[in-house]
Amino acid sequence: MKRRTFIKTSVVAVASSTVFKPFHIRAESKKYRFGFSQVTIVEPWRVQFNKDMKKEADLHPELDLIITDGQDKTEKQVADVENLIQQGVDVLLISPKESAGLTGVTLKAIDAGIPVIILDRNVNTDKYTQFIGGDNVAIGRAAGEYTVKLLGGPGNAKGNIIELWGGMGTQPAHDRHDGFEEFVGKESGIKSLLQPIDTDWKQPRGYEVMSTALKSFDKVDLVYGHNDPVAYGAYLAAKDAGREKEMKFLGIDGLPNEGVTWVAKGQLTATFLYPTPGAEGVRQGLKIMKGDKVEKKIILPTKTIDASNASEILKENGLA
Ligand code: FRU
């Protein structure tokens, strides 16, 4: 109760700045407690994300990290965040299932004076302390440019493509589409076969949507999946239909044991790296605790992974 009052008054004093020092000076014996609300742990990229975060947290004995699992449901994730607010964590990190559903509870944490770091998928407010994630428009552009090249080059590109969206309630899916469109939309010879369709970022959905699409279209030249699991699900569907050689598959994420491996095997033509913000999230949270000013947005880099560099990346990761 006492602490709460303290937080409220302090927040007024620092409202225009992202420096939270006044109410987070740590007694020698007290550890910082960071609460991280993760959306799910079933997707491989999320598993890697949590690993990256724990690895960084382990380097800091002054830090206790609590990670919750939203079980891929907005209601569960909202309850997790409510719970972390109740526990009075020093920093709250949230990687939302979808933007709209997590906005209210994010604002609640901010009102309670807790520094909030949003990771990967955003929320519909910019009142948070910081956002860390990849530039999904830039990734979409890289995929679009690559597609145009594969299909004949600017001005000459031709072909039928299938775009498999991630989760439509999330910004990364829209950004990955918009960036892609900037290149592909200029090519009158490229035809997009499907209306936007939500795969919720899941491999089985990629498989299902692709199986249905293959029944309607007898010529597909390229599939653009908004992440590697979806692209790989589509690849498996094409393989089961005996048509995988007919088309190219592009994905996003570039995890060594997934996307990069599929590229090295020739199953995907390319993937675009989408680094997890796990380690950076912990580092930035500690900066906030020390009273350092942090940037409003940190954008993580991407790179194209295809036959030219996939095996090298596997070697670097001890996988070849
Ligand atoms: C994991 C994931 C990644 C994707 C990211 C987008 O949940 O689907 O595969 O790149 O989320 O937010």
Percentage of residues assigned to helices:
40-55%
CATH architecture of the largest domain: 3-Layer(aba) Sandwich
Strand content: 15-25%
CATH superfamily of the largest domain, please?
A: Response regulator
Query: Numbering strands along the chain, what is their spatial order in the largest sheet?
Result: 2-1-3-4-5-11
Task: Describe this structure as you would to a colleague.
It is a single chain. By secondary structure, this protein is α/β, with parallel strands linked by helices. The protein folds into 2 domains: 9-133 and 277-300, 3-Layer(aba) Sandwich (Rossmann fold), CATH 3.40.50; 136-275 and 307-316, Response regulator (Rossmann fold, 3-Layer(aba) Sandwich), CATH 3.40.50. Helix content is 43%, strand content 18%. The chain has helices at residues 2-14, 44-58, 74-86, 99-111, 136-150, 171-184, 203-216, 228-240, 256-264, 278-290, 310-316, and strands spanning 32-38, 63-69, 91-94, 116-119, 130-134, 159-164, 190-192, 222-225, 248-253, 270-273, 297-300, 304-306. Strands 2-1-3-4-5-11 form a 6-stranded parallel beta sheet, sandwiched between helices. It has a 6-stranded mixed beta sheet with strand order 7-6-8-9-10-12, sandwiched between helices. Strand 6 (159-164), helix 6 and strand 7 form a beta-alpha-beta unit. Helix 3 packs parallel to helix 4 (99-111) and helix 9 (256-264) packs antiparallel against helix 11. The chain is elongated and about 65 Å long. Bound molecules: beta-D-fructofuranose (FRU).
